[in-house]
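Hi support team,

I'm opening this ticket because the web form for multi-chain structure prediction keeps timing out on my end. I have pasted the exact lines I submitted so you can reproduce it. The total is 226 residues across two entries, so I didn't expect it to be a heavy job. Is there a limit I'm missing, or should I split the entries? Thanks in advance, R.K.
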Amino acid sequence: AQSVTQLGSHVSVSEGALVLLRCNYSSSVPPYLFWYVQYPNQGLQLLLKYTSAATLVKGINGFEAEFKKSETSFHLTKPSAHMSDAAEYFCAVNSGNTPLVFGKGTRLSVIA
Amino acid sequence: DVKVTQSSRYLVKRTGEKVFLECVQDMDHENMFWYRQDPGLGLRLIYFSYDVKMKEKGDIPEGYSVSREKKERFSLILESASTNQTSMYLCASRPTDANTGELFFGEGSRLTVL
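Hello R.K., no limit was hit. The queue was backed up. Here is the completed structure from your submission:
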């Protein structure tokens, strides 16, 4: 079985500061990993995905994530937070054609 | 662009009512999914379908059923709504040959059961 743990249900950063959202996964097979973002009253939008190519993955809106097999981690980062980054972020895992398994989400607040 | 449309953004129903949540996708995707989203619990898989007339139970199927009569449409049915089914429901789709497994989501249906 696959699972995802997101550390921190709520993260607050100042505008311009580094954003770091943590995700650890468990999988008995090589995983595919995803980060999705959800703005208020909207569905989920894909930020980026890891599919066994480059371990450093760049996504939309300046976000990136690094796959670290030794640490079973896929943390999401952005060098400089913007007010528009305030949203809920979900990490997810699967092994290709299986359903995605999601973490519980991290709400990001950006303080002016 | 892939479009996944959920027919109702907001619904208010009474306990015991039968509720239909409709989802339509326009990209000829084989796979479709229903998740429910609750604060602090993330997204939990209710049912999914890999093809027309096929359905598989997810992690929390109790109290729900689904229908997939046409490839583009996947309906979630609450046979007798209860207050603990008050939630945000998210539909998603993807093609079978997507080796990455990425899902495309609708905007969600927020259901309140009184």
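A quick check on our side: Chain A has a mean pLDDT of 93. Let us know if the file doesn't open in your viewer.
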